[in-house]
């Protein structure tokens, strides 16, 4: 159903529903078409702004995507739109579509309770894997470790404190040693190399990897890199393509 254009497609009101809020018509249409293809059986409502949210009342809304539109966390319009969404659809996770790859912005937005930060440089398969992570109850950011670091630095500079209910520090709930292992993993290092660099046994490295995979709800190290991004990129031959990443949190199987 396209609220902005007035065109409707009939769906049962009990179907899982996603809301796409994006001012640009072409971008909004492309996103809706992509999500319809990837999430079979879902119903998608697109709108220009949160002013049309009431028209989705009564639907089983399970996801809301919101265009960041260049706004920072200090934007009253952004905070107002997030409040409007939560007032009507308190249980639906919110994902923002950003026009920046800035990690400080990502960290600050996640502290507002947003569960997904999607940037313009993401590969489509990684974006879809991240979306499924959000739908499965996780939090997605292209570089969560960097976001946590940059967000903490920004907070220190302005003397700010994390907001109540903020999600950034709990992004993956990694221990310091797990974060070290994950950093090496994202560089494409093998277990043996990780063990040598961190002065750990192979068994300990495997244990940390198991904990990381459990927290991220993925099944192997390839999917970890696919979800969090590899520092060496996908074209260096060391990190396999992320084509299986979506299977880790597939909602088609669970819904």
Write structural notes for this entry.
This protein has 255 residues and is an alpha/beta fold. It is built from 10 helices and 5 strands. It has a 5-stranded parallel sheet, with helices on both faces. Strand 3 (60-67), helix 2 (76-88) and strand 4 form a beta-alpha-beta unit. The longest helix has 15 residues, at 144-158. The protein is elongated and about 55 Å long.
Number of strands: 5
Low-pLDDT ranges: 1-10, 155-172, 232-255
How far the N terminus sits from the C terminus, by CA atoms, comes to: 21 Å
General form: elongated
The helical percent reads: 40-55%
Instruction: Going across the biggest sheet, name each strand in turn.
Output: 2-1-3-4-5
Class from helix and strand fractions: alpha/beta
**Strand percentage, roughly?**
5-15%
**Tally of individual helices:** 10
Rg of Cα set: 19 Å
Mean of residue pLDDT? 76
Name a few traits of the molecule:
single chain; 255 residues; alpha/beta; five-stranded parallel sheet; 10 helices; 5 strands; elongated; disordered N terminus; disordered C terminus
Per-chain topology:
Blueprint: E1 16-21, H1 25-38, E2 43-47, E3 60-67, H2 76-88, E4 94-97, H3 103-110, E5 116-118, H4 124-135, H5 144-158, H6 176-186, H7 191-198, H8 202-216, H9 221-228, H10 251-254
Can you describe this structure in just a few lines?
With 255 residues, the protein is an alpha/beta fold. It is 42% helix and 10% strand. The radius of gyration is 19 Å and the shape is elongated.
């Amino acid at each position: 159903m396209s609220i902005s254009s007035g065109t409707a497609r009939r769906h049962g009101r009990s179907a899982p529903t996603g809301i796409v809020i994006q001012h640009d018509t072409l971008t909004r249409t492309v996103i809706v078409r992509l999500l319809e293809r990837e999430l079979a059986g879902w119903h998608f409502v697109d709108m220009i702004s949160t002013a049309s949210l009431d028209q989705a009342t009564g639907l089983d809304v399970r996801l809301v995507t919101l265009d960041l539109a260049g706004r920072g966390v200090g934007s009253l319009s952004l905070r107002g739109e997030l409040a409007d969404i939560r007032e009507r659809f308190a249980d639906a996770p919110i994902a923002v579509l950003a026009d920046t790859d800035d990690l400080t912005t990502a960290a600050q937005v996640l502290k507002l309770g947003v569960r997904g930060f999607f940037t313009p440089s993401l590969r489509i398969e990684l974006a879809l894997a991240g979306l499924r992570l959000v739908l499965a109850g996780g939090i997605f950011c292209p570089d969560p470790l960097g976001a946590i670091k940059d967000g903490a630095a920004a907070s220190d500079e302005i003397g700010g404190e994390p907001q109540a209910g903020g999600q950034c520090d709990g992004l993956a709930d990694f221990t310091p040693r797990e974060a070290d292992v994950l950093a090496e993993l994202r560089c494409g290092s093998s277990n043996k190399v990780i063990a040598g660099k961190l002065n750990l046994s192979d068994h300990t490295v495997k244990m940390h990897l198991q904990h990381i995979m459990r927290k991220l709800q993925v099944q192997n190290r390839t999917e970890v890199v696919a979800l969090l991004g590899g520092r060496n990129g996908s074209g260096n031959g060391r990190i396999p393509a992320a084509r299986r990443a979506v299977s880790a949190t597939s909602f088609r199987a669970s819904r």
